[in-house]
Structures are given as C-alpha cells and as structure tokens.
Amino acid sequence: MEALLLGVGLLLGAYVLVYYNLVKAPPCGGISNLRGRTAVVTGANSGIGKMTALELARRGARVVLACRSRERGEAAAFDIRQESGNNEVIFMALDLASLASVQAFAAAFLSSEPRLDILIHNAGISSCGRTREAFNLLLRVNHIGPFLLTHLLLPRLKTCAPSRVVVVSSAAHRRGRLDFKRLDRPVVGWRQELRAYADSKLANVLFARELATQLEGTGVTCYAAHPGPVNSELFLRHVPGWLRPFLRPLAWLILRAPRGGAQTPLYCALQEGIEPLSGRYFANCRVEEVPPAARDDRAAQCLWDASRRLAGLGAEEDAEPNEDPQPEDPGVPSSLSTPHPEEPTVSEPDPSPQSSPDLSKVIRRIRVKVEPETQVS
Fold this sequence. Notes:
377 residues, 12 helices, alpha/beta, 8 strands, globular, 10% strand, 8-stranded mixed beta sheet
C-alpha cells in the first residue's frame, strides 16, 4: 500500500512539474484598453482564435471574426458579445482556400471599416482531409491566403500605424524544408501532409521576417507566434473516430486549453515595447531563437516572390496601392500605445525613388548576418 501511495505521489509530482513548465501558459499583459481600435482575427469561431477574439473584445476592441462558416462564425460572435459585454463583435465571411474569397473579404472590410490596428492570422489546417485540389491546400490556407490578405489590408494598417500583424505559426516549422520547385504541388497521403504542414509553418516564420524588412519605418510591425501544444479542434480533427476516446483524456492532461494557447498571439498583438523585435518568432510570451532555415533572408525573399505569384499579384510593384485616408475621430487614439514624451517621433520616409527604405533593408540584412539575434526573456 505504501509503495502504491508513493508511486501515485511521484506521478502527481511529475505531472505538476510538466504542467507548470510545459503546459501552463504565462498570462498575457499588454495594453488593457483597446477602445477605438479594430482587430481582425481569422478562424475565430473556435479554439485559439475564439479565445483571442474574446480577450480583445474584453479589452474594448472592435473585433471582426473572419471565418469560413457563417453559422459557426455568427454563433461565435454572439457568444463573445454575451461573455465580454462588448457589442462591437461581428462576423465576416472568409475562406482562405479561395483567393477570390480573400479578395472579397478585403473589399468588404475596406469599404465598411475605417480602421485596422491588429491583424491576427490564426486560421489554419493540419490536413487536407478528403479534399483533393490541384494545388497545395495546406500552403494555400496556412500561408498564401494570409499573405494575400495582408497585402490587401496593408494600406489600412499603415494609415492606422502603429499597428501590428501576428502570424500564428508552430514549433513544427523546425521540421520544414521549402522546395521552391515543388512549392504548390498537390499533397497526397498523410506523410506528405505532415511535411507540407511543417513547410507551411516555416513559411509563416519566414513571411513574418520578410514582412518586417519590407515594412521597416512604416510603423507596422509583425511577429510569428507559437501558441504551444493546444487541445483544440485542430489536434483531433483528423484523428480516426475509434482513437479519439483514448486521446481526449490524454490531451486534456498534457495539452493547453485554447485560452492558454491564445496568450502568445495576444502578447505579440498587445505587448508594449516589442517593436524592435519585429519579424521575430515568439513562444511562451518571449522571443525564441529559430533554426538557420527560419532566419535565411535569401529564402525569405524567394518565398516572398513565389507567394506573390501564387497569390496572383504578379511582379513586385514599385508603387503601393493608394488609399484615401479615413477621417479620424479626435477622441480615438491612433496608436496601439502612447509614446513616451522623450521618445523621438519617426517621420515618414521620403517617397522619392532614391529614398532610404531600400538602404535600410540592406543595412538590416547585413546587421542580421553579422550580429547574432539576442534572446530576450
């Protein structure tokens, strides 16, 4: 009996250590009052996305739930309005597998919403299921769709700068290996799906890195966020039915709840003072080092060019699309955080062809290659 009790005690002690060191997520702090600001969260009808949207709504933001299913999206918007007491939560249809749907969403959003302060790319898939497409569905949903959506909404993000883009990635990016000759090849079989999922998560990290370079000096910053091991629909969606009863209790014990998984994306969206870390990868609410493949600037640029082609944007244009600035409410703050009086104001770059942004990109690339990235905890 004593041996049994000792064994149970050791198991409980081991679980407590695992829970507090690996499972439990640190709570997100950051800006507490988001009134007057607008956020878009993709895939916000359940799991991490819904918890992220709920927290933003609790802090007073106007939140747009960008979801594929109207029924589930509107139900989630109703739940969040009820729980947060914030009626500024709406659903808008978005299917990231369809470039036409992405374009339609962007057009509808820009015509109806005067602000965009936070864009969180949360939606994603881990398997193609029974769907068989003529393209890489995992890459389309997890990367190309978000890439196109960011491009289309970027003028509004710049108008409302300082603003932020958060791309929900995964530790699976460490297993990714992008083959630009086969990037959009259809995925067949579970082995290819595992590889394609890891590749798409690597694409997320490289996208955030290159986007930070492209947007340097604009006031728009971006981050890749790993939510951690989360017990969400994504985990069990493609598990055989007979196996789910065995995995559910195990998942409940060793995986984070969706609310815990939302903490790092929220940290990247709301934490003050992390602007110098734009383009970096975060996990457990702190910046984390990534393998060489995920900080390869040449690969990031190649991915950017390939993504433009796959998103139907064609060659890189010198001039960005113009957008008439929306009138601002004098009572609404125009930034995510209030700058300290002693901080210098960043002026807009000179729009002439020989202005400094191109030079700053070159300097940043040189600096990244010469100086190792610093771990910040």
